[in-house]
What we know:
The structure holds two protein chains of two kinds.
Chain A: E1 11-17, H1 20-24, H2 26-36, E2 44-50, E3 59-65, H3 72-83, E4 90-92, E5 95-100, H4 104-114, E6 118-124, E7 127-133, H5 136-142, E8 152-158, E9 173-176, E10 179-187, H6 190-199, H7 209-222, H8 227-237, E11 240-247, E12 251-256, E13 265-268, E14 272-276, H9 279-282, E15 292-294, E16 302-305, E17 308-311
Antiparallel strand pairs in A: 1-8, 1-14, 2-7, 2-8, 3-5, 3-6, 4-5, 9-10, 10-11, 11-12, 12-16, 13-14, 13-15, 16-17
Helix pairs in contact in A: 6-7, 7-8
Chain B: E1 11-14, H1 20-29, E2 35-39, E3 56-59, E4 75-78, E5 94-97, E6 113-116, E7 129-135, E8 149-154, E9 170-173, E10 184-187, H2 191-203, E11 215-219
Amino acid sequence: xxxxxxxxxxxxxxxxxxxxxxxxxxxxxxxxxxxxxxxxxxxxxxxxxxxxxxxxxxxxxxxxxxxxxxxxxxxxxxxxxxxxxxxxxxxxxxxxxxxxxxxxxxxxxxxxxxxxxxxxxxxxxxxxxxxxxxxxxxxxxxxxxxxxxxxxxxxxxxxxxxxxxxxxxxxxxxxxxxxxxxxxxxxxxxxxxxxxxxxxxxxxxxxxxxxxxxxxxxxxxxxxxxxxxxxxxxxxxxxxxxxxxxxxxxxxxxxxxxxxxxxxxxxxxxxxxxxxxxxxxxxxxxxxxxxxxxxxxxxxxxxxxxxxxxxx
Amino acid sequence: xxxxxxxxxxxxxxxxxxxxxxxxxxxxxxxxxxxxxxxxxxxxxxxxxxxxxxxxxxxxxxxxxxxxxxxxxxxxxxxxxxxxxxxxxxxxxxxxxxxxxxxxxxxxxxxxxxxxxxxxxxxxxxxxxxxxxxxxxxxxxxxxxxxxxxxxxxxxxxxxxxxxxxxxxxxxxxxxxxxxxxxxxxxxxxxxxxxxxxxxxxxxxxxxxxxxxxxxxxxxxxxxxxxxxxxxxx
Lengths: 312, 234
């Protein structure tokens, strides 16, 4: 028996760029990282990219259609009719991203009323979430990740342990405007916590444990907690194994549970900051051999914005 | 790689070109001592596992999971960091990591020496069964959990629950121990402890730490067998 076998389910990758040259290559670099983590999570894959912020007064939503190929052109037309500004959905495999001249809340309400066949995968100013069941390599190809630019991105490869394999069960989980969560691990008190959060008005799409962690963060942030405080709350309120990476409009945050079975490596150069489940995903990045590298300590919140790493 | 009795200059194996399995199979098949430089490890898993011979392997860069696992007789040096399970179940020989090691370094090791130049993460020397581990930096929580035999020498600090449910392994820490695990207590450094630590520091090439600076921790031997009085500690 190996003492470390349990740490090999699911893969997390995150990359924050510090230079315009790397921003252009963000998709290519993240796809390379996901490729190295494919064997940790062959069931499904997903990404959150932060790119091209919507203009002030507008929002950006990522939509998924589970059924037959939707009429995205018609959707763009409907949005233009409803909100009075042109909208061209940017189609990416089963998903599309729309910039809508409305608040994120108004846009979501309108979509729920007029297009119930669509699921909102994310909303905010710059976030775009894409996720799908199937092998990560196929995901990267179908969603043409290599074409995507942006300031930072998170990715996940999933090996399902708690619940079924579907688009909705895949990571990242959207947790609020421009916020998302990816998780490596498993939670044991998710059913109890889901019931409690549901009473607080948090809605869930699946029976997945990671979605409960995402819902927990949504609830804490709604109650006025800062992201760092909400993550620290996880240490007392979530029971189980986890390495979390949370994407924000400005950067991302990382937390490992106090037992820290689930791996995580962080690395930084003058050009980028990265987190991954394994170094071999980071080894793909330019200059990785000479990067400053460390393992995040258990039970400690790390967050970075604008390329500044801060341990709370 | 030579097949005769003479060790040639170290052969370079580039893992960007040759798969890890091929490298390992070549080393397993060799009947004579080999000297190999491993290039572009790039965090790959299972580099130089299961060696059984007087080989000298230098991994130039960072290694992934299980590097130098189950090592017998060989000397494996990694110039960078290592992922989880470094030298897991080492039987004999020497494994040297010049950088940091992730969790479970030296787990279940039965013999030989593991020397880590930087820090080791959680569970270093878990279930140790006779190997010796010298860590130049600090070790994470739950190190030497259920360790049965062998030595763990830590020049820096130790995380929480050091030596939890310890059997007869000997633990020596120079810095601060965050907390001791169940049934682990501090014990007096005796003359033979000083000699032992001195020899291990010497073997690991640590020159800036004196044996007399270390404190010794061992088993209180209260949890060996079930006793109702100890039920809260199990």
